[in-house]
Write a structure and sequence with these properties.
274 residues, alpha/beta, 14% strand, Rossmann fold, 10 helices
Length: 274
């Protein structure tokens, strides 16, 4: 992409942890396309990652924030408007965490305390970001907000556990807040349902390698990479997508529309013959 699709646009990018993060790739692509932005993550995640390298590369200020804390979000958004010199044009919400998955709790034996944490971090934080920005009138007209999700919100993937509930909630928030923000300031709110992707968070899901390979064989275009997802996010932040809102957009190489592929059939038939 040679043209500067995001020239003059300002943003906030949540969730860049390391070079494998989709948010990291999005930040790089947004910078290439002329955007200025702030980077944010929870303080504990920032200690684990390499966000300082990304900030230096993209000339971006880092503003630590717990996305479940209204106080932190208020400071993040107001500081971003101050640092960037005007209202925000785009926000990426790339946040997901399940203590139940981390602790290997079976779906039929969830800790409900953990479940509430999963929902707060992975979904309700999306509403908190939107509501805080709405109250501060911090997003420009025709601005664009994206949340990253997964098709487990619609279909059952046993090892995805309570993250499926979180993604379903995230997508619902996108539709609901998309209506209100659209009427209020023409702000667009969408979710992107991405292929299984080799990120630090994604690879922590039990059986992820099998998960990844199955999706790759089922999808006619194969799995969409983190780089390709970043390109899609740039498009969604740009003026080229200004009439798209309240949508859950599948960026998965066709996975969401396929029942079975010839590769899967051949594999199964080979197993039966063996």
């Amino acid at each position: 992409m040679a043209q500067q699709l995001l020239k003059g646009k300002r943003g906030i990018i949540f969730g860049a942890l390391d070079e494998s993060s989709i948010a990291w790739k999005v930040a790089e692509k947004c910078f290439e396309q002329g955007a200025t932005f702030t980077l944010t993550n929870a303080p504990i995640a920032m200690r684990m990652g390499a966000i300082n390298q990304l900030a230096e590369k993209c000339n971006a200020e880092i503003i630590p924030a717990d996305a479940t804390s209204i106080e932190d979000l208020e400071k993040l958004i107001s500081r971003s408007v101050e640092v960037l010199g005007g209202k925000i044009d785009f926000i990426l919400h790339s946040i997901g965490m399940s203590p139940n998955v981390r602790k290997n709790r079976a779906y039929t034996d969830l800790s409900y305390e953990f479940l509430m944490k999963t929902l707060d971090v992975s979904a309700v934080s999306f509403h908190k970001v939107l509501q805080t920005a709405y109250k501060q009138d911090a997003i420009s007209e025709w601005g664009s907000v994206l949340g990253l999700t997964y098709i487990a919100a619609q279909r059952t993937f046993p090892s995805y556990s309570d993250m499926a509930e979180a993604k379903a909630t995230l997508e619902s928030i996108g539709r609901s807040f998309g209506y209100h923000y659209g009427k209020h300031r023409k702000v667009r709110v969408n979710t992107i349902s991405q292929s299984p992707t080799w990120t630090t968070a994604g690879s922590g899901v039990k059986g992820f390698d099998a998960f990844f390979n199955y999706a790759d064989k089922l999808s006619p275009l194969g799995n969409a990479s983190a780089d390709a997802c970043a390109d899609y996010c740039v498009f969604m932040f740009s003026d080229l997508s200004r009439m798209i809102t309240m949508q859950n957009l599948y960026h998965d190489g066709g996975f969401s529309s396929v029942g079975v592929s010839q590769e899967i059939m051949d594999m199964l038939m080979g197993d039966n013959e063996a």
